[in-house]
Amino acid sequence: MNILKSFQRRTPLGWLQLRHDRGRLLVALAGIAFADVLMFMQLGFQNALYDSNTRVDRAMLADIILVSPKALNLQNLSTFSRRRLLQARDIPGVQTADALYINNITWKNPQTRLTATVQILGFAPERPAFKLPEVNQQLDKIKLPNVVLFDRGARGKYAEAIAQVEQGKPVTTEVERKTLTIGGLFSLGASFGADASLMASDQTFLRLFPRREAASISLGLIRLKSGANPQQVAAALKSHLPGDVRVLTAQEFVQFEENYWKTASPVGFIFGLGTTMAFVVWVVIVYQVLSTDVNAHIKEYATFKAMGYNNGYLLGVVFEEAVILAVLGFIPGVSLPIVLYQFAAKATALPIFMTLSRVVLVLMLTLLMCMMSGAIATRKLQSADPADMF
Amino acid sequence: MNQIALTENSQATKTTTVIEVQNLDHYFGHASLRKQVLFDISLSINAGEIIIMTGPSGSGKTTLLTLAGGLRSAQSGSLKILGQELCGASANQLTQARRQHGYIFQAHNLHSSLTALQNVRMGLELHSDLSVAEMHERSQLMLEEVGLGDRLHYYPDDLSGGQKQRVAIARALVSAPKIVLADEPTAALDKKSGRDVVELMQTLAKEQGCTILMVTHDNRILDIADRIVYMEDGRLADEQINRL
Prior knowledge:
The complex is a heterodimer of chains A (390) and B (244).
Chain A: H1 2-9, H2 13-20, H3 22-53, H4 55-59, E1 64-67, E2 80-81, H5 83-88, E3 94-108, E4 115-123, H6 133-137, H7 139-143, E5 147-151, H8 159-166, E6 171-175, E7 178-186, E8 197-201, H9 202-208, E9 216-217, E10 219-224, H10 230-240, E11 246-249, H11 250-264, H12 266-296, H13 298-307, H14 311-348, H15 356-377, H16 379-383
Parallel strand pairs in A: 4-8, 5-7
Antiparallel strand pairs in A: 1-10, 1-11, 2-9, 3-4, 3-10, 5-8, 6-7
Helix pairs in contact in A: 2-14, 3-11, 3-12, 3-14, 3-15, 11-12, 12-15, 14-15
Chain B: H1 2-12, E1 17-28, E2 35-46, E3 50-54, H2 61-68, E4 76-81, E5 84-85, H3 91-98, E6 101-104, H4 116-125, H5 132-145, H6 161-173, E7 179-183, H7 191-208, E8 211-215, E9 227-232, E10 235-236, E11 240-241
Parallel strand pairs in B: 3-8, 3-9, 6-7, 7-8
Antiparallel strand pairs in B: 1-2, 1-4, 4-5, 9-10, 9-11
């Protein structure tokens, strides 16, 4: 009550100071906005790395996933014996256990006739293997030999081919001297590991890789009966199956993939470092803006101190400025990245987009950083006698 | 009415001492660079007096003034302002002491982002439980008294040197302090505006019954003093009685 009353009586000095010198205000806001943009871009790119590389993993229609212990990531899965699937079906709670074959393949871009590397996913089309309605509606198409579904979100020059498929005209291309027909489309998007994905039946897949045996599978997709606890079933599978296969819940599998990109891949390291650098640059910019402002007003603050205003009052003025700068700078600081995200997403076919949690995170950090910078910048003012500051 | 009451009040307190300095020493710097700037200063100033402190530059006048104003921490000796000892006072006590007086700086030291009225209001905001409207009114009255009633919403950059110094005086006096400390208030002004400013201070101080301690080099304004104190090389010379 008292605080509110004294707040009303108070001259809004921070705001008046900022408003008085428009030029300096603009420079300060530009600095803070730039720092915010930098932070948003790095966070956006880093998140896109993890999001795009786990898209296929997250789309899998499975509660528990079997994977070879030698697997590194989706592009390097190694194989294990299909017999493990049959063994898994013995465990109570398991409803189905299906094989998924995954491999990278070099094909000719149907539009440019240039070679490109894509990821091909093969599964028995009798049952859906992915949580992608578009794929599940077109299972009949891939039952035909050498017919595949193609990813609309692929990175590269595929627009004409995609348009042709959308008009109902199948597009053909060449893989390993075999003709492949694109019978339909689905939407998933590119990743750092693969430019595009193809969905095929297990039979088509095996025809493309003659040296690969049907009994060597990439992943085992296990679905549970309703009401079964994934953790319990996974534990039972672990004790039942031999050590040449790893049992992961769907969530653990996504984490496994993400972890590879975070720790083992050079891209993850570079993005991690980039984000750290952006954070450091951001802290330096915000501190510079606030301390320049405090120094510009130090004589005026000394006068107030000489008049009997205490350090708390001056700190309040600096905090007021810090909050105004943080909030005003944040407006362009968040708007610009939204535009840049769209631009980058279009250019890379990666899932780069703004999330509410990131907006809140960066806003909170900006406020905190501005206030801390302001507090540090006023330290000199707090300890000195006003007479020494004129 | 108000004015009369104030005058009576000042007469009643005429004999009380408001500034009492005894054996005050002061040093600048640390260790080998330590240099004594004030030597054994003793001075007492009664309520309602106008004291001018003069002397060559570097003689320690401003140092003594800033010590009296609590703008610098006193080191040894005794320095009592309105009965409160400032020697060895805590930072908080010094802040409280600074609220007891109005300080007029050599440069006006107005806040460039605030209008004349807002600047004067800053002198009031600390002191009273006045409402926003009352603060506004009193600041406006004060500015009218210093002859700037038509410049209320001007920023300092748009005022002349003399006008700025008059705003600074209004800021120092608006809370009706018992003591006004002024550090060469006419230094940056021409003869005419300097004279105007000092006379204004004199008039207002007499109205409010406050004590003025002024440091100056300016010989043209010595006549307004009740007493002139001469300072040289950090020591007070014999006091001259000017008027009274």
